[in-house]
Amino acid sequence: MAPKYKLSYFDMRARGEPTRMLFAAAGIEFEDDRIPFDKWPSLKGTTPMGQLPVLEVDGVKLCQSMPIARFVARETGMAGKTNLEQAQADAFVDELIEMLPKLYGVAFATDEAKKAEMAAEFDKTMSSKLERCEKLSGSNGFLVGNSLLCCDLVLHTVAFNIENYKPGTLKGYPKLAKVMASVNANPKIAAWIAKRPDTKF
Amino acid sequence: MAPKYKLSYFDMRARGEPTRMLFAAAGIEFEDDRIPFDKWPSLKGTTPMGQLPVLEVDGVKLCQSMPIARFVARETGMAGKTNLEQAQADAFVDELIEMLPKLYGVAFATDEAKKAEMAAEFDKTMSSKLERCEKLSGSNGFLVGNSLLCCDLVLHTVAFNIENYKPGTLKGYPKLAKVMASVNANPKIAAWIAKRPDTKF
User: Could you tell me which residue ranges the GST C-terminal domain spans (chains A, B) (predicted)?
Assistant: First the structure.
């Protein structure tokens, strides 16, 4: 029997979305358990590492967002075709995902001077990361190899936020823009994006 | 023919050591290329992501420290026996490795007041992370399952620094101390520790 999956995360894309997109791309049913922020303090102690996301697989609780995404990528054949391809995909994930907390830092800063300073620093980080990923990306619509992998969905998640933050940024990175386009063109992903809750992050 | 491995990293343990220990534990030859800090600025541009470590596998350059460690763990059968075990091991790695930059932040702080503040914050983070890992660890000398995995070597690397920073800390976490002891008792690891360069971090 196919395992039963329950992904618990906040009602946002962020660090939970690559896993949701993996399930969607593979056509695998999962319970999309979205924890309201006001319920979190009372639930925190019940999670293995005091953090979300948590993925329950037939009752076993897995934690840490990218280990969860990598697990689901392996389960669904989207980790990479060879060990080497898997390592290359994995390096993109680590490089890209680091942008999220920095971007949220800017978004949630309340002091205007501090916010401007953080934004300038983030813009610099973002450019150098996107440049590196553009240089290393394949040119046929996938970061690595010739099929949709977890890293493409991490790029999509991060770039979705970047495009909200500075519309048009991806145009400067044609290979990455092509990856975004090929993710969006995947019918199962497109159906997921159309039905997923519309959240700010 | 067995692949040829060259690991380029600074002359420190830090984010390169789990990979070196994986090679040592598996009895696999690798070139331990240690880049002097003064040579780094001229080499930075030649690395795929402008960072070290880089692992060359038969000429292919892999980057990002934990993706490299996970790759070598898969090559050497130390990633986890099942996909689920691999995810559990992986979560320990992510939880533990985050301590290193924070610990180095304290070590390299020059302003005394700032250093004390950072140390207090680090101590809190360290306790909560070690508590969580202690709770989730297996009790037979391995974090997960019943054999040496990549996560045990990451714990060893992190705990080695912690013991230098606050000797005796691990005594408060008996299951983690037992993992340290079983890593140290591995003859191939012991031989590696005896011969590796003695660096501060």
Answer: 82-201
